[in-house]
């Protein structure tokens, strides 16, 4: 019978898995990240965007709209017809620009794209016509009594930094998560495992060496000693053997 290796204990330094999960749930509000599950069962980690960057994104969008209006005015014919047409273009562009951008361009206007922000539904899914139209029409309510005072107060008192339009429409503004570069596997001479490991146990070993650069050497040596039942060694020698095991997983 092969010896039993508690790799879950090894990965977390001896703490029970349930304690780790409880701690992670407790940190969810501290680090500002939201943990959501889609109807398909996919877990999403979202970071709500605060008022400061959202205000800058809004200012960029206003400047873009004013520039467009200036160019449109120069191209308009003179007379009442030109004046009426210009007013129609102002109205359509003011309300249409953010809605079309959010629906067709992944929830991002030019300002949000420049700041790395995105509008999504409260469940993390992309916004549709209904949500985008509702949240943008309610900009009028968020503006009251002046300078978006209502929207700012709502964001300051809401954990997800949602303004009134977001709360009613069921949307929120989040940071666009940049995909993390996949760590390179450990550079070592592959070594066959002394006995088979389950896929979860192998994943635990891979996870360890993907974040090895963030752990101090003495901590790695301590974890190596905990895995003595697998490696038959302690300290740095045990760590090196585990590195060679991981190097051989894809061989």
From TrEMBL:
The keyword Chaperone does not apply. It is a multi-pass membrane protein. The chain crosses the membrane at residues 55-74, 81-100, 137-157. It comes from the Bacteria. Residues 49-170 form the RDD domain. Keywords: Membrane, Transmembrane, Transmembrane helix. The keyword Cytoplasm does not apply. It is found in: Membrane. PANTHER family: SLR0254 PROTEIN. This is RDD family protein. It comes from Massilia aquatica.
């Amino acid at each position: 019978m092969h010896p039993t290796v508690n790799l879950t204990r090894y990965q977390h330094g001896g703490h029970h898995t349930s304690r780790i999960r409880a701690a992670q749930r407790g940190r969810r509000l501290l680090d500002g990240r939201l943990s959501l599950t889609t109807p398909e069962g996919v877990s999403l980690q979202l970071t709500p965007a605060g008022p400061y960057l959202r205000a800058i994104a809004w200012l960029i969008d206003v400047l873009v709209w004013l520039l467009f209006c200036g160019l449109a005015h120069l191209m308009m014919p003179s007379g009442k017809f030109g004046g009426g047409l210009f007013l129609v273009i102002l109205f359509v562009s003011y309300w249409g620009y953010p809605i079309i951008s959010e629906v067709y361009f992944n929830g991002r206007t030019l300002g949000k794209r420049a700041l790395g922000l995105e509008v999504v539904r409260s469940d993390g899914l992309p916004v549709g016509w209904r949500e985008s139209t509702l949240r943008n029409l309610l900009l009028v309510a968020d503006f009251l009594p002046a300078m978006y005072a209502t929207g700012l107060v709502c964001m300051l008192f809401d954990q997800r930094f949602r303004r009134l339009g977001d709360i009613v429409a069921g949307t929120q503004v989040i940071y666009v998560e940049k995909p993390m570069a996949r760590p390179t596997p450990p550079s070592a001479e592959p070594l066959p495992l002394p006995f088979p490991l389950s896929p979860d146990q192998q994943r635990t070993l891979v996870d360890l060496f993907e974040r090895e650069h963030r752990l101090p050497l003495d901590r790695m040596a301590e974890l190596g000693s905990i895995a003595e039942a697998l490696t038959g060694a302690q300290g740095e020698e045990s760590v090196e053997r585990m590195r060679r095991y991981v190097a051989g997983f894809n061989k």
